[in-house]
Amino acid sequence: MARSTSSLRRSVGRALRRLSRPAGSFDAARYFRGGHDLRFYNVGTAAMRAFARDQYQTHRDVWTIDDAMREADALMLDPYLETKSVAIELVARYRRSFAPRLLTQWKRWLAGNLSANWATTDAICGMLIGPLLVDRPELARQMTAWSRDSNMWVRRASAVALIPLLRRGLALDLGYATAARLQRDREDLIQKAVGWMLREAGKTDSRRLERYLLAQGPRTPRTTLRYAIERFPAARRRAILTRTRAIHAPLNGRDSAAR
Question: 197 with 225: CB under 8 angstroms?
């Protein structure tokens, strides 16, 4: 490799600090809840991606996907959001070399809380895991075990990673089964992810989504429901909300608390 992982991490940090903006003009922290010790350089997405692209161009002739993953492993340890983003962007540029074995490494990032925020988790899903599942749909079944994981970020990934497949009309049965499995999850970020996944599934077959929501209404969190029906016409949204609200009313306190 061209340089050590620690050297690259330091150089990425220095470059991102130079690209940072005053918090007054853009404060990334306002988009994230506390509790995960996440730091920010306040570098915009366009600038961060341009920097990642330059890093790739610099090393593309000497790095393999395994080299890129070793570098990314080091960058993911960094507490700054933008450094993690550079790691993901770099690996994503090796999509043609994605292999099933990488799924275990990406899950390690999630389970180790190296992606302990929604943006990093969703980027891993959208740029790494999702494209691998599109290329190798048989791997999607692994999301069943992920949806039962004790780690919240792994559970969120079990839904979000399926979205690229669902948008193509694939793995719909798996998507709905995952939604049903996660619908009792108390974490707000899981409920939103499930609603997002269902909304994307509904683009392929909106009637199936409506049938699912009406059938599962007593067990579906309202947050999930509202996300899932965002693309429906207003009258249809109101009808679904009204019908499921009537069903929700007699639930006992324990079930209500789950929402």
Answer: no
